[in-house]
Structure formats: C-alpha cells, structure tokens
Amino acid sequence: MADHNHISRVHYLAVELAAQNALMRELAAEAAKVLQLPMPDTFLGRKTQEPFPWEKPRA
Prior knowledge:
By secondary structure, the protein is an all-alpha fold. The protein has one helix at 5-36.
C-alpha cells in the first residue's frame, strides 16, 4: 500500500490556512471598527476646568 502522508499534509495545511484566513478577517473587521471611532481627546491645549478663585492661574 502506498504511503499517502502528502495528501493528509496538504489537507492539514489547507485547514491551517483556512483558520489563519478566518483570524485575519476577524482582526481586519475589529480594526475597521476601531478606525470608525472618533479620534481620542488628548486634553492638550484644552481647558478641562476653571481654577478655584484662590488659585493662581497656570501658565
């Protein structure tokens, strides 16, 4: 009987490639969702609150 390891090896590679493709699709979909979100606010140059009356204003 002939040894058919190469056939099963090709099958396993095809299954592995399909799993990798599914993972890449999931990651791409998640990245697309993140890119749809508004840009985060870094608070640079934005006044977040008024200083208390007895505090010196910060420069």
